[in-house]
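Researcher: We're teaching a course module on how sequence relates to structure. For the next exercise, students receive a sequence and then see the predicted structure as tokens, so they can try to spot secondary structure elements on their own. Here is the exercise chain.
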Amino acid sequence: MQGGFALIESGCVRSKNTTNILIKNLLDSFISGVFYWIFGYAFAFGAGNAFIGYDHFAHSGMDDSSYATWFFQYVFAATAATIVSGAVAERCEFIAYLVYSSLITGFIYPVLTHWAWSSEGWMNQGFTYDTGDNSTNTIAISYQDFAGSGVVHTCGGIAAFLAALVMGPRIGRFDKETGAPLEIKGHSVPLAALGGFILIFGFLAFNGSSQGSISNPGDGAAVAMAIKNTVMSGSSGAFTTMFMNKLPWFGDRKWSFATTLNGALAGMVSICAGCNQMETYAAFIVGIGGGVAYMITTWLVLFKFKVDDPLDACAVHYGGGVWGVISIGLLSRDVGILYKWNAEAGLTLAWQLTCLVAIIAWTGALCFVMFYILKKLHLLRVSFEWETKGLDIPKHGEPAYPAEAYGHGWGEKGDTLFTMVKKATKVSSESTMKLALSEISLGNVSVLTNMTEKTQL
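Model: And here is the predicted structure for the students to work with:
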């Protein structure tokens, strides 16, 4: 899934920022590895209290049989952090990325998993309710989120929204006079498509492997159900957003690839919570809801809040995640209120909503403080010049598409960019040519008009 995130994000940004987005996706895995090893796993699954764990820091005292669980949970932590990088693409300072990725994977996300998935966590423990029935005196209510619609995706989505809100939009994203959004196109639809396919495939394992084992009786059936429901929810989510985008009230009346892809991802995010306990048609309905939630959240973020999210990460993960948590209380065949109109179903829905508010409040409060402090320290956003010219060269010294690497020089049709510019501008100085090529690689084509009065490209 990290590979999928890397490709979809790099395809959706401009070419001058490709290396920057790639290194952030690469480091998400490694930062999570270090901080989840030292702090995260202890806070999440170490012995402690209902709020937080405090055992097994840096794997101290862990037995060998626990390392598989650590690996699985570490990957989830990396996913929660990766969601943010797409929302702040093309303008985030590298030091700010290091800070937020470390804190999300090392503290913010692990505490949520302790609440929801640790046996001691207050959300998992829930409460008991006395029915007054002699045959069944009490029923136990606990938070249900099989693969992390709330814990992983809502957490990442709200963090992404607040990061983009505090950081502000990219230069040129909104009209200065009217405030209307202006389109900034990514540089490669094929890269985004390949990343989308990888993410969709990864989601099958993301949800299926949340069973936690494969060798016990019933494990195979549970994994198969989770994967089957993930396919159905993603399918209905894709169709929902594709057709909604054709309507004048929701889209631009085009068959949009990006909108269709994000609808599929939102559908898969939505089914994470209940993919182990829903019928096929219910998963299909959840996917439709995920697609609608994506479209509504996109509209709110862009047009109402004026927040620039290049990847629509907030809409996919927050919109889909929130609906996924709620859908358990409605469509679960075990405790859904549409299946069992009783006290247990009603209380389950109420507890899902309560825990959802807690997830949003915890993540939102900490992330807002973190990003606000980074902004006040002038560590959150890059300079105007670097944002305008691109981050690949000044930050990393590695343009993703170096101009001098194109062409082969065999004949006029095979001229390299170097020789084409040389002919067009009639400039013979090699140093001047190198300057021109570097400017072109940054998108500053107007430099050619300054070299000769006769040439305009």
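Model: If you want an answer key for the exercise: Residues 452-457 have pLDDT under 50 and may be disordered. The longest strand covers residues 127-130.
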